[in-house]
Predict the 3D structure of the following.
Amino acid sequence: MKEIISVIRISKVNETKKALIDAGIPAFTATGRVMGRGKGQVHFDILQGAEAGHPEAIAQLGNAPRLVAKRILTVVVPDDQCQMAIDTIIRTNQTGKPGDGKIFVTPILETIRVRTGEEGDEALN
Amino acid sequence: MLMIRTIVRPEKVHEVMQGLLDAGYPAVTKISVVGRGKQRGLRVGDVVYDELPKEMLFVVVPDADKDFVIRAILDNAKTGEGKFGDGKIFVSAVEEVYTISSGTKESEPLLAAREV
């Protein structure tokens, strides 16, 4: 089993949910807003100054990159569906501009359905 | 590749993120979480607070950079010798990383420390 953790644009969450259902993966877990930054540099002194309400810091804030709001969608899938799920997420979220997000794939050792106590791939179906 | 998940004090988040930036790891994701540790929360008189607010930071780094990144986090997240509540660092395996905007699969060197 694999856990697919995808950090995606907030505006793309609904689209991704629909696409995953169409691809046969209805189950997912999502977080609320998460904040993050990518390769762009963040000017922390300016950011902190602006949060404290210093006018000169707010004036400088203009073009500097800062933390951006995203949402995290987590899907656990059997090994054979992993690549298909990744392709689906990439296809629905790709705009080609920086900020589309990242997908991380991590191994899951065990899945247990709480209702019945089923284990492994059965618990995912 | 490794995913380093760090739970830190909310007031220390800016310092830790600046530390990571200085160390050359600009890419971070941050989530607000609540939780308790092995001290079972905070006890004030008869009231127990067992949902203490913390911030969780995600960083994904190449295997070789693990100790360096953990050192960078520890140096900035500590509030004193042996103080409770400074948080935890969890390290787990990441098998694949994709950048959505280009659709490419990342290899380790692309995630390594970069000049900032």
